[in-house]
Amino acid sequence: MRRDFDGIVAANALVAVDDEHDPEGGTTAFERAHVAALMAQAREHLEELDEALRRLERGQYGRCEGCGGTIAPERLEIRPAATTCVRCAGRPTR
Prior knowledge:
This protein has about 90 residues and is mostly helical. The chain has four helices and no strands. The longest helix has about 35 residues, at about 25-60. The chain starts with a helix and ends in a 5-residue tail after the last helix.
């Protein structure tokens, strides 16, 4: 993704792009924003996984931060970075 983003930025640097008047400007801006959003999402997911590893090291992995109960292994298999059980995850946030 980083290479894609850098490629989009580099390609735009080679030409004088006026996003407002260039018919391709909107597309390039969208692509740049889309890849940037995907990269941010990937970074956030990696941070969540790093935190899950720290919880594992502290012996707290698999414990719900909401109720203190056990997070079902099936949930952790699907969402290894989960911090809440299904019941607590479904509660409305304030």
